[in-house]
Amino acid sequence: MKDIYESILKLKYFCQCHESRISSSCQITLAELRGIKAIEEERDISCSDFSKRINLSPSRGSRIIDSLVRKGFLSREIKDSDRRSTYLSLTNKGKKIKKEIGREQNDFELILKTALNNEDMELIRKGLKILEKLMETNIIRR
Question: Global pTM?
């Protein structure tokens, strides 16, 4: 089983390197990149949901939100005149960078698709889904 764990660590490293390259090209931090990816283009999200989606504490999430608002990627809107009901949405600039991030991710997948046949690609996809589900249900709960 040690070899599976080592493979997961290597994959994590490769993905982090790829995300770092994307964030550098977009001139944002990794946390900001993950924050932008967490917001759907046509839907608002509460600040607490934002922090949960990117697995950050509310205070750290708030700092990322402030940074993304300052850089013009997010806008805040107070709903129902209650300061605690603040919702976030992507600005046009945020939507543009989210599309750029999506293109980078698609290019990465295209590299895999061109190197593998359809059968191998499907085996990898299924295996990763099984592993993801297993980890979500067993490891995170510990």
Answer: 0.78
* CA atoms lying within 13 Å on the CB side of residue 72: 5
Cα separation, 50 vs 6, in Å, equals: 31
Spatial contact of 100 and 26, defined as CB atoms under 8 Å apart: yes
Mean pLDDT per segment of 10 residues, for the chain of length 142 residues?
86 91 91 90 83 90 94 87 78 94 90 91 93 81 54
Measure Cα distances from 27 to 33, 58, 61, 118 in Å.
9, 24, 19, 35
Domains of the chain: residue spans and CATH:
2-139 (1.10.10.10)
First to last CA, the chain: 19
25, 26, 27, 28: CA torsion to nearest 10 = -130
And the tokens for 63?
A: 């700092």
Asked if 77 and 86 touch (Cβ cutoff 8 Å), the reply is yes
